[in-house]
Amino acid sequence: MSIVGLLTFANFNDVKAQDQPAAEATEQVAEATDQVAEEAAAPVEEAAAPADDTKSFHQMLKEKYIQGGAGWMTPVLLCLIFGMALIIERILYLNMATTNVKKLLDGIEEKAKNNDWKGARELCADTRGPVASIFVQGLDRIDQGLENVEKAVTSYGGVQMARLENNMTWIGLFIALAPSFGFLGTVVGMVQAFDDIETAGDISPTVVAGGMKVALLTTIFGLITAIILQIFYNYILTKIESLVDQMEDGSISFMDILVKYHK
Fold it and tell me: Which residue, 33, 69, 115, 217, is most buried by CB atoms nearer than 10 A?
């Protein structure tokens, strides 16, 4: 019996010793499989994560435009389009109206020294800009006396100033309309939010989110449009003031030349 017991115990230990490495190998294989699965899943998650961040600025702007409601965002967009069209027209016009007044006056004085008033007029006629146009009007009346020349210069100077300020009223209108449409969309969105609360009988954020989004987006776009137009509007005003100063200073110098050389 003792011998049989010893042999049984020895066989049991051998079986146990053989089972233990097999179990450890199985656990190692399972851990390796899990690690490979995690490494395979990680790139998928990393690749999927940037998908939400790949929207371009144009796509985001379009999405916000739709969320704000085309009925209220379209008037704001039209204000921006028409306002920028007028601004571009004014900037081009004012840049073309810029004149080297000192050079022009030096040329007129050279002609005046030789009593060549016709040549001085042709020089002014070939020069672009409101200053040269004013000088043309004055030289056309050089034979009528300096008093008539001064009246013509003053009167036509007012005409040129009005031309410089052309379309500025419309730009100012679009600056005022853009935020007004935005605020109107805000009021409508708030009314919509309260209607939704009344219908649902609940004041939870989910109920009022839609109306509040319309209200905020229309206001934001309206204010952004007004800010953009206002910046260009002030730039144009600065250009106009600079040209008006050139016209006034040039007219004074022009009359001084006529007084000095006209006989």
Answer: 217
The closest alpha carbon to 70, from 246, 247, 248, 221, belongs to: 221
Cβ neighbours of 8 (radius 10 Å): 10
Domain ranges of the chain: 2-51, 72-263
Tell me which residue of 32, 89, 76, 135 sits closest to 239, measured CA to CA. 89
- C-alpha 32/C-alpha 107 separation (Å) is 92
Structure tokens at 101: 């007044």
Three-state DSSP state, 83: helix
Tens of pLDDT along the chain (263 residues)? 444 343 444 443 443 444 444 445 445 544 544 554 455 444 444 444 444 456 675 566 566 656 656 677 888 889 999 999 999 999 999 999 888 889 999 999 998 888 888 899 999 999 888 999 999 999 988 888 888 888 989 889 888 988 999 999 999 999 999 999 888 887 777 777 777 677 766 666 665 666 676 677 888 888 999 999 999 999 999 999 999 998 999 999 999 988 887 76
Measured CA to CA, the distance from residue 81 to residue 225 in angstroms comes to: 10
